[in-house]
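Budget justification aside, the reviewers requested a transparent look at the raw inputs and outputs of the sequence design task funded under Objective 1. We therefore reproduce one unedited record. The lines immediately below are the structure tokens for a 407-residue chain.
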């Protein structure tokens, strides 16, 4: 596998020239300097950032749409199951059978039912199920194939055809880098919402023909649904480097057609890692992975995006299960992979409520960061989005109302 090369603007303290252009483009220079000056939530390591005016969004439109029986926070709001076994990863070797057993124990403890009885709590026999992975940090901290194997084995054993299962992420090349290929998963779909030309992003391409059509639009424009969007009163940069990564600019972040027209259910399989003083786990994996044109949102709406994008029916009514992969974990330097901060954790977390799940994991990663001597900023701004999610009825954001079960 090739090492992870993509970098999002909000993820780094320092960016070299290639990383800068891949992160958002020359037209985003002013915003980038703002991030590096410590004004974003991610970079406020030692002091709370100054308040900036919050841009308007169209989240109210999403909230007005009637919910379904599968809407967030699902049948087990506030319940988080943690399963730990040191033996699942020994000397870098993964015990796939043990990881499968951990997943099955966690699922049955979450639902109170066996595997076959658990399936109809979330799915119908004709569902098309998308497994949202996090392929960033291939070979270091990306979603482990063995965890996805365990999820697929459960779905298939319950009678869901493999052709009705799709492993997906926003970027197609990242899936391949992380080992999510048709050869590795025969009969299972593998789909990225968009293409990004790495060579063009790094200034190595002779032209932009791999990602830019003759009419000046991105080759992936048709992969996004112009009728379903997250609108925020923030403009995206207009330079080609930004468009290469984000498909569109302007004020609209369109949902992938994969979510709006094909998938009927979603299982979210993020990894256990930080993003500055916050976490980059279940809610960020889906919040920033379901739509395009996201870099414009990092500074003014960063953690709120993790609430507001999942508030839309394309996620809210389809995301039925979250499985956080903590077989390996990262306590500092995230969301990009930093090998010196990655450690064996031997843990997976399960819940239908992604906000309760992330809140439990946030507290655990803060505890780990302190134990490792990292200076931690515990300003409420890094956790207030959990309470915002609770206000919108999407999850439990009150620690006193969370049931944390340990196996």
């Amino acid at each position: 596998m090739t090492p992870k090369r993509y970098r999002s603007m909000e993820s780094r303290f320092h960016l070299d020239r290639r990383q800068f252009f891949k992160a958002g483009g020359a037209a985003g220079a002013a915003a980038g300097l703002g991030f590096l000056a410590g004004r974003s939530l991610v970079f406020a390591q030692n002091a709370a950032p100054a308040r900036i005016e919050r841009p308007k969004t169209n989240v109210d439109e999403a909230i007005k749409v009637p919910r379904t029986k599968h809407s967030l926070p699902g049948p087990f709001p506030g319940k988080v199951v943690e399963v730990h076994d040191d033996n699942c990863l020994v000397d870098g070797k993964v015990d796939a059978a043990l990881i499968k057993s951990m997943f099955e124990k966690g699922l049955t403890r979450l639902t109170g039912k066996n595997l076959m009885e658990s399936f109809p709590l979330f799915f119908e026999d004709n569902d098309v199920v998308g497994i949202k992975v996090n392929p960033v940090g291939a070979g270091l901290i990306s979603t482990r194939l063995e965890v996805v194997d365990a999820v697929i084995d459960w779905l298939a054993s319950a009678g869901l055809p493999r052709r009705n299962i799709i492993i997906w992420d926003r970027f197609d090349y990242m899936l391949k880098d992380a080992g999510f290929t048709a050869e590795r998963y025969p009969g299972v779909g593998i789909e990225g919402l968009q293409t990004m030309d790495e060579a063009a992003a790094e200034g190595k391409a002779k032209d932009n023909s791999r990602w830019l059509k003759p009419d000046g639009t991105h080759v992936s424009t048709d992969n996004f649904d112009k009728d379903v969007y997250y609108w925020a009163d923030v403009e995206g940069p207009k330079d080609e480097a930004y468009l290469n990564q984000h498909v569109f600019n302007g004020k609209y972040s369109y949902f992938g057609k994969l979510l709006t027209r094909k998938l009927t259910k979603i299982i979210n399989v993020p990894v256990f890692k930080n993003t500055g003083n916050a976490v980059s786990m279940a809610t960020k994996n889906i919040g920033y992975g379901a739509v395009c044109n996201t870099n414009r949102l990092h500074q003014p709406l960063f953690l709120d995006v993790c609430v507001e994008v999942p508030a839309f029916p394309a996620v809210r009514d389809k995301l039925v299960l979250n499985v956080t992969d903590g077989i390996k974990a990262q306590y500092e330097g995230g969301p990009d992979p930093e090998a010196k901060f990655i450690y064996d954790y031997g843990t997976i977390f399960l819940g239908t409520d992604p906000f309760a799940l992330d809140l439990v994991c946030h507290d655990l990663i803060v505890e780990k960061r302190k134990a490792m001597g990292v200076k931690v900023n515990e300003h409420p701004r890094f956790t207030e989005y959990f309470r915002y999610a609770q206000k919108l009825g999407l999850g439990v954001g009150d620690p006193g109302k969370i049931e944390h079960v340990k196996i």
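The chain has a mean pLDDT of 89. The longest helix spans residues 354-371. Computational costs for records of this kind are itemized in the attached budget.
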